[in-house]
Every structure is written in C-alpha cells, then in structure tokens.
Amino acid sequence: MITTSSEYNPTSIIYPPKVYSNISEFQALSVAYDKECRLIMKRLESIYKNRFFFSLDEAGCSRWEKMMKIKVNSSYTLDDRRFTISTKYTGSRPYTEKRVRKLLEDLVGSDNYTFNIDYIKKHAVCKINLGVKHQLAAVVDLMENILPLNITYDAILLYNTHEILAQFTHEQLSHFTHEELREMPVEKMKERLGI
Q1: Taking the domains of the chain in order of start, what are their residue ranges?
Q2: What pLDDT, in 10s, does the model give residues 166-180?
Q3: What is the DSSP letter of 166?
Q4: What kind and span of H or E run contains 152?
Q5: SS3 (DSSP) at 192
Q6: Helix (H, G, I), strand (E, B), or coil: what is residue 56?
Q7: Degrees (nearest 5) of the Cα angle 25, 29, 33?
Q8: In the predicted model, what is the mean pLDDT of residues 108-121?
Q9: What is the pTM of this model?
C-alpha cells in the first residue's frame, strides 16, 4: 500500500527478540535498514505522484517533455511545465465550445481567461490574464489542437486597460514604468504599493 513518508516510519528494531535488540550491531543494522526503507518509500511515492499530470515532480516533467518533444524555457515553474504537458496530452479530438471553455478553466483558472467565437467570421479569440502569461504558448498549442481547421484563432494576453488602472491614483501609477503599467498584474502592483 502506498502511503506518504510522514505516515511510514519504519522501526525494525522492534521485530527481533529482546535479547538481540539490545546488541549494538543489531541496533546499527536496524538503523541502516530503516534508512533504506525510507528511501524506498520516497521512491514509491515519487512513482505514484508521477502517474498524474498535476502531481508530476521534476523527474516526471522531464520524462514527459522528452517523450512529447516539448521545449522548456528556464523561467518556467513546475506548474507551468505540468500545464504544458497536460495541454499537449489533450490531443486533437473534436471539442464543443463548452468543452473548450472547461479545458481552459481547468488549465488556467476560471478568472484568468476570456474566450469568444464569432461563428459568422469563423474566428475565435482567447485572451489570458497577465498572471498566467507564461502559459500563453501552451494555450496557443491547445487552440491549435482543439479548434476545427475552418476556425481561425488568436490567443493573446489581456493587457491592463485604462478602466483597470483607474482604481489607482496618478501618484501611485508614477511608481511604475509604461511597460509595467501595461503588463504587470494588478495584484503585483497592489503588493508593490503596499495596498
């Protein structure tokens, strides 16, 4: 049975008879055996976690990226890498608009994107928030694999607008460069200002 390492605490010294458990050699053997058991449990735990995309560790991500020929940017976090792998794995099956929205919600969060399809022009637009901008390439890949070939698409970042920045005073905004005002997530701006 797979358990977490915090639940598994081997104590092999309790198994030999009392006569042997007081001998220092048996105690040393017990300590060494317990260390090996902990290492084995950590490896089993890693194998178990690497069975699922959203619990992959570094080794699991590297293995999937090698199999799927995914190029990784050094600035990607482990969550970004998991996202890219799960996006690539979804494949090119036909999807409905409802299913596309559900996939986007699962991958970037319900508040981090907008998705609209103009059925007359046969064009889809997916805008993702700046907080998940590292996942733009994965969203483009998702759109490429999911949308039918007769629908064109744009996947773009949802930059800050005047309406979004109107909650700040001019003095507060003067602490940021134009690029930061355009691209920095509002939460980070508030954090930097101490609001």
Answers
A1: 12-49, 58-158, 163-193
A2: 888 888 888 888 888
A3: T
A4: strand 152-158
A5: helix
A6: coil
A7: 175
A8: 89
A9: 0.50
